[in-house]
Amino acid sequence: MKMVMAIIKPFKLDDVREALSEAGVSGVTVTEVKGFGRQKGHTELYRGAEYVVDFLPKIKLEVAVGDDQAERVVEAIQSAANTGKVGDGKIFVYDLDKVLRIRTGELDGDAL
Amino acid sequence: MVRALPLLFSAAVLLPGTVLASPAAPPAPDSGDTAWMLTATALVLFMVIPGLALFYAGMVRSKNILSVLMQCFAITGLISVAWVAFGYSLAFDTSGMEAGTVNLGSFIGTLDNAFLRKLGKDSLVGDFPESVFITFQMTFAIITPALIVGAFAERMRFSAMLVFMLLWFTAVYAPVAHMVWAGDGALMWDWGVLDFAGGTVVHINAGVAGLVAALVLGKRRGYPGTPMPPHNLGYTLVGAAMLWVGWFGFNAGSAVAADETAGMAMLVTQVATAAAALGWMAIEWITHGKPSALGIASGVVAGLVAITPAAGTAGPVGALVIGFSAGVVCFFCATTLKRRLGYDDSLDVFGVHAVGGIVGALLTGVFAAPALGGFGEVADIPAQVWIQAKGVGFTIAYTTVVTYVLLKLVGLVLPLRVDEEQEAEGLDLALHNERGYNL
After folding, report:
1. pTM, whole model, 2 decimals?
2. Long-range contacts of A103-108 (CB under 8 A, 24+ apart)
3. Does the pLDDT at position B21 exceed 80?
4. Which H or E element spans position B216?
5. 3-class DSSP state for residue B259?
C-alpha cells in the first residue's frame, strides 16, 4: 500500500477531488497548510509599512491507496492540479505499513 | 461652530428673565431645528461607537481588538459623565467674558453650571432645547479623546489611560473648545479663527496629543522590524464608512440649525471626502503600484477631517481642493514621514488627524473668501490664513505642553505601559481576561 501526499494550490482542490473520484479513490484527507518553495512569498504594504510574507497558503492532500492504484492517483492529481506556473506544488509517495478501520477492525486492503 | 452663536447664547441667558417678567408662555422650540439637532447628535455618537471603534479595531493585531473597542466605550462613558459634572460648564459657560477683552474667561469657563444646575427643561439655545445642544457638544467631547487611542494602541495600560483621558479632557479639550467656540471674549474666537465644526478643537488637538503620547510611551516592542499588519481591514472599512455617514451630523449639525448653512456643509463634506479618497488612492497607486483598501479608508478620514473647519464657509470647488490636498499630504505623512522620523503612532492619529486638520484649517482661510466661491466674511485671504495659522500654532503649542505634563504626572503614579509579557500576550487577555476571537 502507498500513501500519496500532495501539496497543491488551494483553488485547484475541487478539480483534484473530482479527478480522484474518477480514479476510484474512496477517501481523502485535506489540510490547509502554509509553506514556501520556488514560488517564494509576497509582500504586503500597509500605509507604507512593507511586510514580506514568506509562507503561502496551500492545500495538503493525503490519500491511502493500494499499490496497483498509486500510479493512477499520482497521474490524476498531477493533471488536475497543473497550471503550468511556479507554485503548483509537489506529490510525495511513500510506503504504508498498516491500515485499520476503527469501526470494524478490518485491516489493510479491506480497510482502504 | 457658526459665528451666530453669541446671539444664540445671549438668547439662552436672557430667557429666565423673560419668563419671569411676562406671564406669557415661554418661546417654543422650532421643531425643524430640534429634529435635525437630535438626529445630528445621534450621528456624531455613531461616529465614535461603533464607527471610530471599528476603524481602529480592524487595524490592530487580533490579540488587541477588544482593548481598543473597550477604550472607545469606556471613554464614551467617562466623558459623558464628566461633561455633565463639569465639562459643559468649563467649555461653554460665558460668565465674565467680554468681546475684545482677555481675562480668565477667554481661556476657560467657570464651574457655575456644574452638574447643569442652570439647565431647565425649557432652556433654549437659539430655537432648540439646550438639552439637545449639551448632548450634541458632549459627543464632540467624547470623540476627541477617543481619537487619541489610535496613537498609543497596543501598549497603554487601561487604568492609566482612563486617568489620563479624564485629565486631558479637563485641561486640554475643555479650554480649547472654550477658546474657539464660547463666543465673544473667548481667545481664538476674538482672533477671528474660523473653525466651523472642530478642525482645531477636535482633530489638531487630538492628533498632536496622540503624537506626544506615542513619543512619551515609546514604540511598541519590535516596531518597526516585526510585522504588525492590521488584522481585519473589513472592520476598518466598515468603520470608515460609518465615520463618513456620521460626519454629516458632525459638520452639518455644527450649523446648529436646519438651514442653508447645514445644507451647504453637507454638500462640501461629501465633495471633500470623495476628493480625498480619490487623491489618496491615486497617489498610492502611482507610488506603490497598487491602490489599497486601507489607503482609500485613510483618504476618506483625511478628507472628512480637512473639510471640518471649512464646512460652514467653503463652496463646493473649495471643498474639492481642500479634500484632494488633504488626501495627498496625509498620504505622505502617514507613510513616508512617519517611517523617516521613526515614531510609532500606531494607527496614524497624527498623520491623518493633526495633518489633515492643519491642511484644512489653513485652507479654510483661503476658501472662505467669496472671491473663491466661499461664504465667509473674508476679503483679505492672506490675513485670514495668518489668523488660521495663529489658531493652529497656539493649539499645537498648548496641547503639546499640557499633554506632555499630564502624561508625566500620570506616569508618576501609574505605569503608563503594560509590561513586556503582557504586550506580547496581547492586551485583550492581559488586561481584560478575554479574547476577541474564540474560533
Report:
1. 0.86
2. A108/A1
3. no
4. helix B205-217
5. coil
Contact between A98 and A106 (Cβ < 8 Å): no
For residue B210, give the 3-state DSSP assignment: helix
Region class of B316: left (phi > 0), else alpha (psi between -120 and 50), else beta: alpha
Angle subtended at Cα B425 by Cα B422 and Cα B429, rounded to the nearest 5 degrees: 85
Length of chain A: 112
Mutation target vs B (from A43, A44, A46, A54; most B CBs, 10 A cutoff): A46
Tell whether B348 is within 8 A of chain A (Cβ).
yes
- Strand intervals (E) in B155-223: none
Span B253-296, pLDDT tens digits: 999 999 999 999 999 999 999 999 999 999 999 999 999 999 99
Interchain proximity A49–B229, CB inside 8 Å: yes
Q: How many CB pairs under 8 A join A and B?
A: 27
Q: How many residues does chain B have?
A: 439
A71 backbone dihedrals φ, ψ, rounded to 5°: -65, -40
Q: Do A45 and B348 touch (CB under 8 A)?
A: no
Angle, alpha carbons B232-B236-B241 (nearest 5°): 145
Interval A57-101: pLDDT, tens:
999 999 999 999 999 999 999 999 999 999 999 999 999 999 999
- Provide the residue type at B14 as one letter: L
Name the minimum distance, in Å, from the CA of A53 to any CA of chain B.
Answer: 9
CA distance B317 to B276: 13
Q: Is residue B333 exposed (0-12), middle (13-18) or buried (19+ Cβ within 10 Å)?
A: buried
Taking residue B66's Cβ as centre, other Cβ atoms within 10 Å add up to 23
Helix, coil or strand: residue B125: strand
